[in-house]
Amino acid sequence: MVKGKIIKGIAGFYYVQTDDKIYECKARGKFRKDQLTPLIGDYVEINTTNYEGSLKSDFLQGTIEEILERKNKLIRPPVANIDQGLIVFSVSYPKLHVDLLDKFLLIMEKEKIEAHIILNKIDEQNTIDYKQLIKTYSSAGYNILDISAVQNINLNKIKLLLNNKTSFFAGPSGVGKSTILNQVQKNLVLETGVMSEKIKRGKHTTRHVELMPLIEGGYVVDTPGFTSLQLD
Questions:
Q1: Spatial separation of the C-alpha atoms in residues 85 and 105, rounded to whole Å
Q2: Paired strand residues for 16
Q3: Angle, CA of 15, 58 and 18, to the nearest 5°
Q4: For burial by CB atoms within 10 Å, which of 19, 40, 131, 223 has the most?
């Protein structure tokens, strides 16, 4: 048995990263019987016997035999074993809604996921008093960063946060999540959206869920655009 981490799932296949290889795996039928679905981020044990060197795929083949204990889990996005979440909002457009920010923070606290608040677009005309917002949430014990992804302001601090951790970015569409990732990790080429001038909201640009490896170590969850997190 080999231990690894699920980094992607497509059409019933799970891609498991071990120390030095990636295996394309199917899950054992017993998981359906137990109503247990493998999630991106799960640590698993796989059986690779008789699957090495398969000619049917570009990947080595395996079967997921066990899903190891999870430290946390989200339904939306469907991921497990997250170390931290970076909650991204804009101080320009789309406008920041404090109620949505608080909802993110409550969910992450319940799942014991470390939360960081990222205020993007400080180079643009502000629609909120974000300096006061920083004081309010900092006094409550949250780490909060004001940045500009376009002007490369304070992005080095985000880069340090991501090192050797499994992280995800949350927040409304159009706040610059993909732009931030493209700036801090040049090996990632994520599609970025264009702000709708009519409604001042962004368009979803990310279409699948996977863990993307970072140059300095760790992973970031690349997930379809969403405006809310969801638990069981």
A1: 9
A2: 6, 23
A3: 35
A4: 40
What pTM did the predictor assign?
A: 0.83
Boundary residue ending a domain (35, 69, 103): 69
The single residue listed with the structure tokens 């080095």 is 156
Please name the residues in contact with 123: beta carbons below 8 A apart, sequence gap of 6 or more.
148, 150, 151, 153
Give residue 198's pLDDT. 41
Res. 68: pLDDT tops 90:
yes
Q: Does residue 227 surpass a pLDDT of 80?
A: no
- Same domain, yes or no: 39 and 105: no
Q: Is 134 helix (H, G, I), strand (E, B) or coil?
A: helix
Pair (103, 190) in one structural domain: yes
**Structural domain of residue 134, as residue ranges?**
74-222
Kindly report the average pLDDT of the chain as a whole number: 85
Cβ atoms of residues 50 and 62 within 8 Å: no
User: CA-CA distances (angstroms) from residue 106 to 48, 95, 175, 200, 230?
Assistant: 41, 20, 20, 27, 11
Q: Is 91 exposed, middle or buried (0-12, 13-18, 19+ CB in 10 A)?
A: buried
CA-based nearest residue to 173, from 223, 214, 211: 223
Q: Which residue has the higher pLDDT, 118 or 231?
A: 118
